[in-house]
Structures are given as C-alpha cells and as structure tokens.
Amino acid sequence: MKVLTRLLLAAGLGLSIAAPAAAQDAGTKRWKQGTGWGWVWGPEDQVGALNEMTDASRAAALRLATQGRAYDLGLPYDRNSYRWPGHSPGEIISFRTPEGVARQRDLPFTTPEGGNTGHTRWHSSVLFMSDNVATQIDGLAHITHGADNHWYNGFKEEQWGGNFGVRAMDVTTIPPIVARGVMIDVAGQKGVEALPKGYEITVADLEAALRAQNVDVTPGTVALIRTGTARYWGANGSDHARIADPDTSGIGMAAARWLVEQKGALMIGSDTSGLEYVPPKPEDSQAVGGSFNPVHVYLLVNQGVHIGEFHNLERLAADRVYEFAYVATTNAIRGTVAGTALRPMALR
Amino acid sequence: MKVLTRLLLAAGLGLSIAAPAAAQDAGTKRWKQGTGWGWVWGPEDQVGALNEMTDASRAAALRLATQGRAYDLGLPYDRNSYRWPGHSPGEIISFRTPEGVARQRDLPFTTPEGGNTGHTRWHSSVLFMSDNVATQIDGLAHITHGADNHWYNGFKEEQWGGNFGVRAMDVTTIPPIVARGVMIDVAGQKGVEALPKGYEITVADLEAALRAQNVDVTPGTVALIRTGTARYWGANGSDHARIADPDTSGIGMAAARWLVEQKGALMIGSDTSGLEYVPPKPEDSQAVGGSFNPVHVYLLVNQGVHIGEFHNLERLAADRVYEFAYVATTNAIRGTVAGTALRPMALR
Amino acid sequence: MKVLTRLLLAAGLGLSIAAPAAAQDAGTKRWKQGTGWGWVWGPEDQVGALNEMTDASRAAALRLATQGRAYDLGLPYDRNSYRWPGHSPGEIISFRTPEGVARQRDLPFTTPEGGNTGHTRWHSSVLFMSDNVATQIDGLAHITHGADNHWYNGFKEEQWGGNFGVRAMDVTTIPPIVARGVMIDVAGQKGVEALPKGYEITVADLEAALRAQNVDVTPGTVALIRTGTARYWGANGSDHARIADPDTSGIGMAAARWLVEQKGALMIGSDTSGLEYVPPKPEDSQAVGGSFNPVHVYLLVNQGVHIGEFHNLERLAADRVYEFAYVATTNAIRGTVAGTALRPMALR
Amino acid sequence: MKVLTRLLLAAGLGLSIAAPAAAQDAGTKRWKQGTGWGWVWGPEDQVGALNEMTDASRAAALRLATQGRAYDLGLPYDRNSYRWPGHSPGEIISFRTPEGVARQRDLPFTTPEGGNTGHTRWHSSVLFMSDNVATQIDGLAHITHGADNHWYNGFKEEQWGGNFGVRAMDVTTIPPIVARGVMIDVAGQKGVEALPKGYEITVADLEAALRAQNVDVTPGTVALIRTGTARYWGANGSDHARIADPDTSGIGMAAARWLVEQKGALMIGSDTSGLEYVPPKPEDSQAVGGSFNPVHVYLLVNQGVHIGEFHNLERLAADRVYEFAYVATTNAIRGTVAGTALRPMALR
C-alpha cells in the first residue's frame, strides 16, 4: 500500500482529487514533550506535524472566533517588495488589456464582427515570481540538509528532485490549516517599535510576553512571534532600508526547541522573512553540523514543523488580540515549496 | 476624503498595512430584492457586494462549522493544466536546487568554507503563470465593458490601467471572505456525471436542486454551482479532452439575475473555468449589448459580485454537504485581477 | 498595394518567409545633406535609413574585411548585468537538466525502458529577460513621441500597439545590416579611460577623433562612438558602480544632427546603454518639445536611424581598428522593439 | 595555466572582455580524414571544431560574397511558433507601453512635470522563452550522454551544471562564425516540396544533390541541408500540422559521419528543428549505446561539431545559391546552451 502510494506520487498522479484535508482524521497525537514531533508519521509521510489536526481540534479552534472579526495577515507583494537576496526578482505584467485585446484582434469572438458589439474585454496578468516572497508558509521540501540533500522524513534529492519543482512534499501536500493561533508580541512586551538587527529572541522573551498577555502555547497551537518588522512594510515592502535590520531578528535554536519540544507548537511563524535570527551564533550553527539557517533545518527537516514568514501581526498587536483561530491555505501549485504571497487569517 | 483616497491609490500607496478585512464593519445592507447590488457603495468603492459582510455575518457563517471538517476546494495547477485559451501557458521551474546551490557557489554562506559544513541547501521555484488559472476568484477589475473600457463602479482603463497590472480594484482589495456557503448540485439533481457541452443551467434547475437539498440561498450567501466538471480534473487538469465539454456548461443571464436580484447571492461560483455557459445565446449576449461573456459583465461590472471558478465541489457532493462556512482569501499580489491557484475552504 | 501590405501586417502575416534582406535592392539614395533621412520612404515604410543599403553598398563594405579578422562587439549578459533602470530584471534559468530529465521521467523516450540506454539527456534554459539589455540595436518602434504616441513614419499606438509587443516595425523588419563601419574613439583621443559622468560629446570631439584616426564618416556609414564604458563591463556587467557614471556620457543633439544631416550616418551606436548623454540640457530637451531622451526621438522617430547600444569597442580601440565591415542581425522575435544581447561583428 | 583558466571559469569570470573571436588564430588543422574532429583541442577546450577557423579561412569565405547579397536565414518566432515538444512555451509580452508609462507615472522623468512635455515614451517587451526555439545553433553543452552526464570534452554535470544555466561551454564560448557555407538541396534534387515524415537522408542523397549543384563540401565548410520544411513556416511557424511531418526528416549517423569524417564539415545545419531524422532506427540508436538523438550525441558530444537548426533555406533554393559566406553569431547570454531565434546570414 505504501509502495503503491509512492509509485503514484512518482508518476505524478498525486492524491485523489476530492480529498478533504489530508489529515482530516489522522490526529494520532504523536507529539511527545521533550522530543516534539519528528519523523513519526511513517515512511511515506509528507505532512509532518500538521497531521495532528483533527476535526475536533479544528472545531475547537473555530470556537475561538466568536466575534466574527477577520484579520488579514498577508503583506501585499509587488515588483519592489523586499525579499531575501537568494530569491529571484519578480514582475507582475499586464498580459491582456482592454486596449490590447481590441487592437490585437487575435481571438475572433472579441471583435464587433464576431458579436462583441458591447466591447467586452478583459485584464489578465502574467506573474513571474518566486515561490518565496511576501507572506509565506514554508513547505517541508523547502530546505535540504546533509551531503545527501535529504529533506523531511528522509526524502532525497536524487529520488524526488525534478525540473518542474520538487516531486514530493510540495505545497499541495500541506493540508488546509485551521488551528488555535497565539500571537506572541515580543516587540510589544519590550516596548520597542521593532527588534534590533540580528536580535535572538530567547525563551525568557517568549515567556515574558506570554505572561504579560496571559495566554499560553498549548500542544497544537500555531505560534506567531512579533518582532515589529511588518510595520515597515507599508503598501508593498519597498522600503528595504527600514525592513532590512529588524528582519534579521528572530528565534534561535533554544526558543525553537522550547516551542516544539516543551510546548508542542504545531507551526511557528513571525513577521520576518526567515523567522530565525541571522547570522546564527556558532553554537546554533553547529547544533545541526554547521548551517546558515539552523532553525529551518531543525523545524522543517528534523521536526516536520512548517514555518510561517512575513505574517502581518500589526493589527493583532494594536487590538491586543493574542488568541484566535488561525486559518490558512497555500496556493495549489504543484512543485512549489512554499505558499507565497498568501493571506492567512486570524479569526476572532 | 474620497479624493485623498483616490490620490493615495493612484500613488500606489494602497490602504493601511494593518487593516483587517476592509469591509469589517461596513455592512450597510444595500442589497434590494428586485435590483440586487450594483454601484451603490459610493464612487470610490472597489469592493462591491462583499461590503455586505459584517462581524455578525461572519460569526453566523462560522457557526455552521460545528464538526470541524475542512473541505479543500482547490484544484491543483501545473504546466499541463486545462485553462481558458485566452490565457498564457505557465511553467513552474526549479530555480534553486540543492545540487545547483552547491555547484553554483554564488552565495558565500552556502559553501563549507563559509560555515555551511552541514550542507544546508534549499529548493525554490520560479512561477511563470497567469493570474487566471485553476481555482480562481475573479476580481472586479477583471472584465471591462463598453467602448470606454470601464469596469465596476465606472473605473476606466484610461485612468486606472497600467503596465504592472491594474492600478485599482486589484485582488488586494478583495477582503477575506467568510460567509455562509451553499453548494447547489445541479449535476447531482439531474443524475449525470457532468452537464453536457454548452448546457445553460436554468432557474428551474437551481430551484429543483435546492429543493432536493432542502437548503436555500439567502441574502449574503456564496452560491457554488456544481456541473461535475471537476471530477475530470484529476491530479492536475491534464485531461483536456474530458474537461472541455462540461466546462462550457453553466448559468446564463436568467439564473444569474435570479441569484443576485431575487436571492441576494453575495458571490457566485462553480466548478468550471468560467461559471457561465458558452457560447451565449443571442438574447443573453444582447442583454449587455453584445458580449461573449454576458454573465461576467452582469456580475463583475454591473453588480459588483465576485465570481468563483474551478472550485472543486466533488467531495462536498459525495458527502452531501450543502451548507457550510465558505472561507477564502486571494493571493496578495498587487495589480492582479484574480486570485489564482487558490484553495478556498468549506468548513463544516 | 500599400493598403494590402498594411492589411497583411495588421493580420500578423508579415512578409514572405523567404525574403532576403528587405532592402536588398531598395537603395534609392534618399539621404540629403542638410536634412538627413526622415519619413521619405513612403507611408508603409518600416525600415528607415537602412533602406539605403544595396548590394553594391554591402559588397563595398565587405571588401574592407581583407584580413579575415572578426571582432565580437557583444557584451555578455546575465542576471547581474547592468541595465537601464526602466527595464525589467532578468533570469536565465536551467529548465531541463540531465539529472532533472532522468528523475522527472515525463517523456518516455528519455527513459532506459524507452530505449535511452545510453542516457542521452540535455540542458535547456528558460530566459526571462527584457528586449533591451546588453548589446542592443534599437528598432524604430522603441520610442514614441507626442500625445498621440506616434513612432517613426507616423505609426500610432492606437493602431499598431498590442499585448504581444508592437504589431508593426518590430525587430523582424530590421534587415541584416552589412555596411561600412567607423569607430570614433573619443575616449582614446582625449586620453582618458572613459568619459566622465554626463559628458556631452561635441561635434568638435568627433571631428578631432576622426582627424586623429584619419578616417571619415561617409554617407551610409555605421558610426560607433567609444566612451570607454565597456572596459568596465567585465564578464557580465556586474560592477554597476563603475559602469554607471561613464554610461551617462554620449552625444547630444548637435552631434547627432551633424552625423545624420552632414555626414549621412546610416546608424549610430556607442558603448553605453543609451548612446546619448543624460540628463539632457534644456536646449536639447526642448529641441523635441521637452524630452528625457531627445537624441532617441530625433534618430528613431524623426530620422528613422537605428541606434546601437552597449557595443564593445575595447578591442577595436586596442588594435586601432577604425574602419571595418559592420555586420549585425537582430533576433527574429516578433513584437520586440530591440535586438537584445546581440553580438554584432566588425570584420576587418 | 590551464588550471587557472578552469578556475576562472568556475568563478564565473569568463574570458577577457575584449577578446575577438576566441579562435582568431588558433587554426591548427586538427581535422583528420577518417576520424574527423573530436576531443583534440586540449582538456580546457570549449570551442570544438570551430577552433579550426582562422583569419585566412574567414577571409577566404568572405571572398565568396562578391555580389553583396545578404540572405536572412532566420525564421521569425512568436508565441505560436512550432517547437520541439520538450521545450517550454514562450510569451513575448508588452512590458512598457506609451499609454502604460503615461498612466503608471512610476518614473518622474516621464511626467510632464518632470520635463517630459513632449510626451516621449517607449515600448519594451519581456521575453519568456526557451533557448531552443526557431533558428538555432546548438552549443556543445546542449546534449549530455552517459550515466555520468558528460558533454563535449568530458565536462560533467556534477562539476559544470548550475541553476542559472550551464557553467561552462555556454553560447558565449561560440566564436563568431564566418566560414564557407554550402547548401545541399536534397528536397530540390528529389523534386519534392519537402521530404516525407521520418525520412533518413543518405550519403547517396547528399552526393546526388552536391553533384547536381556542382559544389562540394570541403574541410571547414558549414553544410546546410534542405528538407523543405521551412516553406511551411510562414510568418511565425504557426501551422504545426504541416510542419510536423517534414520536420522529422533529416540525416542519420551514416550521413553525419560522412560529412564530418570524410568531408570535414565544420558545422552541420538544416531547416528542421533537430537536423536528424526521428525516431532513429535501431542501428543508429545503438551506435551511441541507445539514444533518441544519436546524431546529436555524435556531433555535439563526440565530435565537437555545432548544429544549426531551423535555418531558412528557401530563398537560397529559389535563387539556386549553393555556395556562400555563412556568417552567424549567437546571442551573448551566459548559461544558455543554444543561440535562439537567430538570423544567420548567407552572403553572396
């Protein structure tokens, strides 16, 4: 059966088309305090910690949304938006335009002679963009580690790589996320606009903020950590100079491990491009054998915990909303490794 | 004040970064039985009927999700997916790969000498794709009409067009959608796999299905109409031959008007690429002065009602789920005219 | 007949497929000292001054290439290359790779079972790039002028614009260029590495250099003017800081008019991104009614003289080669307005 | 010295910027009747048989162009052009347009207030396209062979692959080509419009055509073989149905070996997408251990002989021009493996 699934995946056949959330009923509570999640869902698994969601957990999360308020956590993207320098630039280009359709006359039904006497025309755009810009959820195939280029659950590049994106564990394997969300306002607790360049958020920082907010991270919670960076995003993230410094603040290995292993965080996000502080201190880098992104390796590769990036937490902070239903789906684009330019919601 | 807003938009400054749903508290109940919605929200409005959502309406919708089941309504997209022929082809391309990062050595921190002794590397993709593929929500700037190329609320191309997509009413103006959803299973009521080529769904068809399902479309409901087309999508919509025929079935002007003017539908969607049957009969075409897409003109341009396309309704049909909370956000990509490759949810 | 031609062009049918150089025998010597070229080739003309080329002129040019030396005037382009800020960024992306072909298995003939036991595979790339980068020849549709957005010979946007590039006067209308070339080494004559920021090359500068080189620009000559900027291009034009300043030096209206109206230059090029010095002085800007690029307007729109940009003249200067056969063809890409990333040749 | 060169290449530094044709004076006559070319130019070589060009050979070739006639051998490309199915689709998209520049106001110097009272604006396009479309010259990195994915001269993927195209032997290493050209009109000799589907051109076919034309292929000649396919290209190669069949005709291993090993062809081209007949007969496939493209492997990988594709030979045939100077340069785009959408010339 497992072999069959793998073969189907190898053939690009994917899962059945009409499946509800893959992990609909799969919640088998495999999290263990002290070790967290990990490669515990079987050798075929491509979902990771999100397997923990159940109908019951989703229903409980949605019960937090009593007021019907919907917070849009997305940051708008355009050609000028700040991005991590390893990603490609992007262009959103007018592809068909009313005037162009009229002049081009390439489709007969668009002409008056073809019956279009009312001059119906349209706009469409072409996107040339990275799957890693603006508000993202990193999939488990995003990061590889080791000389064998393995990713979560031991999937290896030599078997699962490809030319049209990854051939396993792409974003279409990320189930719709409906879970209890907690926003941890570290910048707010410290009374600063935004955290300074390269600042490592400690376990004590998280504990202090949670205490001040009077909420806790419980197993199965999506934890969103506020550095304040998103306040500089503006309409499109074009003020790179102001974004750059706070964008390098974030959690380190200690806080990541505490959130996963002690608290059972289902997913961890923040308002920066990479969640973790950079560059990492030597002990953090060495914790995974030498890495520029040890928290990514720890969460995505070793624990199977998805990462949320560039989530807009400003209005939640302004309204002092710390607990909510976190609801997010990625794009359904095969091969891609992160949901990109998303708009997750906090429902309250 | 309105002038200022328009100037800000013209300058690309957009709305404040941390705004929750634009229409959070705007519900002013402007729908009127007999005429529907329309250009009733003031000359600056870019939101249309979705202005009707309120905290109360969202809270009521969410109360439908008692079981915590999450249905993913997205259809996965890749380079082979069926699309309307007027749109561009697409490619999802591996941009950075573990082996490529290792060989290219263009970023010092990725090299062993640069500290990356654990061989952390990554996948990222570049998307070249249309903003009108797979599961979509058409924004109000998608369709223009008349020799003056106006779109909803009288916005005109000569003022609001641009090279980087539209400069007003792009998808970032679509608020997060949380509303009561009703699925109308026309194919199911007729006992067919999928509706035949070019079939016009009538008001009687809708009424019969709703009666059989024992639900109704009430003002503020997102109505999703099932033709059965999505059952042929498979893993990626590559079976163009089977999709093409049922994809041309859908509602006509009569059903569209009934849904909006008599029932108060907040948004209308289906499981096809274009919602409406094509090609339109002469009376439907002439209803808007001669058009290949009269229902689009009626809904998007004249009524300000967003359109949902290629929504996967198969599992809802299988489970006989007809009423639910419809929850969807588009990508946050400035200039684009449709949310694309989305995964809306039906929460039950 | 002319009407037919225009209709054919409007229908995108273009010229006959096997035509040799469009201007093969058209040389009708319409240049006049004192006024230059202009809109003198009939209302259908899309070729401009290059119509002047004849078999005789090409044969004469080729007789300059007695030694058989071929100078490559192209500057290599990649994702890091300097470009004018109004143009899009670019990416050259590995599309198919040997490892990717092997893993993807999307084409049966590439598999061992499909007969490919010798493991033949391939590389191909996808280009996402501007038609205005690196070594270019600007087509006559590149620049428009006036509130009516007309280009050379009175072609107007409202008639000839389109969504897939311009619908007339694209680069496929540029005939193969084989003409006498003269390199005017202004930087060399002045004894500088490169001209300073914003420097306007005067008629006196050109005369002094030509005198020192003992050559002249005669009617029908391609004139290439050296500022020295290309010496900073290196492998890929990535040293933007060094390129930026000399790149703004170039000819102004006086030198452009002298070259065209007094000397009969067939085409004018240089080693910078825009040929002309920028920003223009008020008198130059006002010479065409107020423009940021008056020399472009004068040459492309008013005179029908093509412009060569970012031509690498360094080796010609090192070898003191001032007269040669200039041989260049653009890409054959319909809709594009400039030959891009070209490698023209100087044959000596 | 060789090590240094390789290191420079590895660092992406490429060759000196002002170099004339790399092989300017390198002609060392390493071709041997009976074995052809091969890996004979030293372990660093990326140029192959084109090393054979010298000043003397170029001068001799140019002396064939006595009449000054220039034949454009390029076939125009657009979004609808026929292409080999393994390559990506393409779009040429209007990026900046006069109306868009005016409306967008994103660059101050384009506004009337910024001085642009004359309304100078521009067109530019964005290309999204394969490096393997329309008229091409395949570089030596295009095809790999063997389980080690090696290409010409033993360069291997694991060392020279990359994310931004190949890191060695890209098209920028192809020197400007100026050589004696011979067109072998096989379709003409047979008296057919075009060769039939899958037809293998034999040595006897070539000999018969050459005899009828009274010319020969001599060492250092670019041989262009006419199947007649280009007569169906029309304006843009959109008639896929008519192109598809003759496009599969071409030379096999026997003719390829005869041209290289007996005749000393410097480069071999034709008017089809792939030069060789397909699918190959078993003996041809097995000649290189099992391959879908054995002639490509033989020429590009084993012999270092570049391949010309989709060359328009129709007008040469009409004018019975069989001997000429072949002059071609590829684009100068780093990483790409084929000159694409080119316009080589036959000068007579």
Outline of chain A: globular
How much of the sequence lies in strands of chain A comes to 15-25%
The amount of helix of chain A comes to 10-25%
N- to C-terminal distance of chain A: 41 Å
Main interface: chain pair and counts: A-B, 129 and 129 residues
What's the Cα radius of gyration of chain A? 21 Å
Strand count, sense and barrel status of the largest sheet of chain A are: 9 strands, mixed
What attributes characterize this protein structure?
homotetramer, 348 residues, alpha/beta, nine-stranded mixed beta sheet, two-stranded antiparallel ribbon, disordered N terminus
Description:
With about 350 residues, chain A is of the alpha/beta class. Chain A is built from eleven helices and 15 strands. The first copy, chain A, has helices spanning about 1-10, 55-60, 100-105, 155-160, 185-190, 205-215, 240-245, 255-260, 280-285, 295-305, 315-320, and strands at about 70, 90-95, 120, 125-130, 135-140, 145, 175-185, 200, 220-225, 250, 265-270, 305-310, 325-330, 340, 345. In chain A, the strands form three sheets. Chain A has a nine-stranded mixed beta sheet with strand order 1-15-13-7-9-11-12-5-14. In chain A, α8 packs parallel to α10. The two termini of chain A are about 40 Å apart. The model of chain A is unreliable at about 1-25 (pLDDT under 50). The interface between A and B is large, with 129 and 129 residues. β6 (about 145) of chain C pairs antiparallel with β3 of chain D.
